[in-house]
Design goal:
With 419 residues, this protein is of the alpha+beta class. It has helices at 2-7, 135-139, 227-242, 265-275, 281-292, 324-337, 342-347, 349-361, 395-418, and strands spanning 19-23, 26-30, 42-45, 48-58, 64-71, 74-81, 93-102, 105-114, 120-134, 149-153, 156-161, 164-171, 174-178, 181-190, 195-205, 212-213, 244-246, 252-253, 363-364, 367-368. The protein starts with a helix and ends with a helix.
């Protein structure tokens, strides 16, 4: 039954058995043993799955997995390998793999440790299957290979897809191209008690991607004196840091891994509101980033309208969301109440007025509605499709609109009370 759910046509693959290494907008998903085989597995960058298969062999043999752990955008795998030339019957040759993501690439280090009293001769091979397909195809349960050019270079291999590219290099290994596969290998004789390493690096170049990893380190929450809770909180903060992007206006939490892993307004606003007691900088970054992309014209294709906040920033912006704009107003109010400097609040006042004007324009029969121009079937649930879909007023949007109106009125109400 699980296989049918995860692999049926048109269904997104399941992720509960996968381990991620993430540093937005780069992400790598694999099995707990480090292999990438199916489903959403692979190395993704900015909406493209560049690598859809990855396997490690030692002298043509697989590695028996022992353990794995992920932390701070890094995953470490540990396993055993036996039957090597010169090795004894017992498994005393250990394989350590460290996979670390960064904003524009991925580094994998493989270390063979010989715990025996005799040297062993090894052949390490890391095989990568090039995909080059949009991540949306995986989310829709339609994995496919994209149109790519793969060239073998003296310093490694280069994969091109239009203006985008991925370079594969290795320190200590040879890089060869075999069709759509790139093989990185190294021969070594590992003396007893010694080790040998193979480093492989992937680096992406995409001129159309403005997303850059944020360098902000979030403030640490105060210790509670409960070790388990403090460890959980520290891990949560660390995980959020790996998701922070910055397009020039401050840190913004990315969302929707492993599909888009980009800036989605509703998710970013929700995360920023929850982080306010810990660190207000993500809230300021979200507010400024969305305000910088606020709608200024009418565009039926993207749903852009004057004053409307975008739902997603990728592909020129997607504005087909009814609740992103009131949610932005609520976040501005909450950030102000949490101590956001008044100068920063005043800087966002034009965006606030434009947001409220858009909401007033969209009030129909006393509710926030009047669906945008353009293909509304793309984002409405099936129950709302039909001839009367343009009169659809979702309940959660009404709650947000009410909260936004009350939030916008509070400063004026306080000013009148002071008089």
């Amino acid at each position: 039954m699980c296989d049918r759910l995860g692999r049926g046509p048109g269904r997104p693959p399941l992720l509960h058995h996968s381990l991620p290494a993430i540093a937005a907008p780069t992400q790598a998903w694999s099995d707990p043993d480090g292999g990438m085989r199916d489903g959403a597995h692979g190395v993704h960058h900015a909406g493209v799955r560049w690598i859809c298969g990855l396997s490690l062999t030692v002298d043509g043999r697989g590695v028996e997995p022992l353990s794995s752990v992920d932390h701070d955008g890094r995953v470490t795998f540990r396993g055993l390998v036996g039957g090597l030339d010169g090795a004894r019957a017992e498994h005393r040759v250990v394989v350590h793999r460290t996979r670390e993501a960064w904003s524009r690439g991925l580094v994998e280090r493989i270390t063979i440790e010989n715990g025996q009293e005799v040297p062993v001769a090894i052949m390490l091979e890391l095989e990568l299957e090039v995909c080059g397909s949009p991540v949306d195809a995986i989310a829709g349960g339609r994995p496919e290979h994209g149109d790519v050019d793969i060239a073998e270079l003296p310093a490694g291999a280069l994969v091109r897809s239009g203006e985008r590219s991925m370079a594969v290099t290795s320190e200590g290994g040879a890089v060869r191209v075999r069709g759509r596969r790139i093989v990185v290998s190294r021969r070594a004789i590992v003396r007893d008690g010694d080790w040998a390493t193979l480093d492989v690096e992937l680096e992406f170049d995409d001129p159309a991607v403005d997303d850059r990893a944020s360098t902000v380190e979030l403030s640490a929450p105060p210790l509670t004196g409960r070790p388990a809770l403090d460890r959980w909180t520290a891990r949560a903060v660390s995980d959020i840091e790996t998701l922070l992007l910055d397009v020039g206006h401050g840190p913004v939490p990315a969302a929707s891994a492993p599909w888009r892993l980009g800036i989605l307004a509703r998710d970013a606003i929700g995360a920023a509101r929850l982080l306010l007691p810990v660190d207000p900088r993500p809230a300021a970054g979200v507010l400024r980033t969305l305000a910088a992309h606020q709608g200024v014209r009418v565009d039926a294709r993207s749903g852009e309208e004057p004053g409307r906040m975008p739902n997603a920033l990728e592909r020129g912006g997607d504005y087909r969301s009814l609740d992103a704009t009131p949610a932005w107003v609520v976040l501005l109010h909450d950030a102000w109440r949490a101590g956001m400097p008044l100068d920063a609040v005043r800087e966002l006042r034009p965006a606030l007025h434009a947001s409220l004007a858009w909401m007033i324009e969209r009030i129909g029969e006393g509710y926030l509605g009047r669906l945008p121009t353009g293909p509304y079937e793309e984002w409405l649930p099936p129950a709302a499709e039909g001839d009367d879909a343009r009169e659809w007023f979702p309940v959660d949007a009404q709650a947000l609109a009410h909260a936004a109106a009350a939030a916008a009125a509070e400063p004026a109400h306080r000013a009148r009370r002071r008089r």
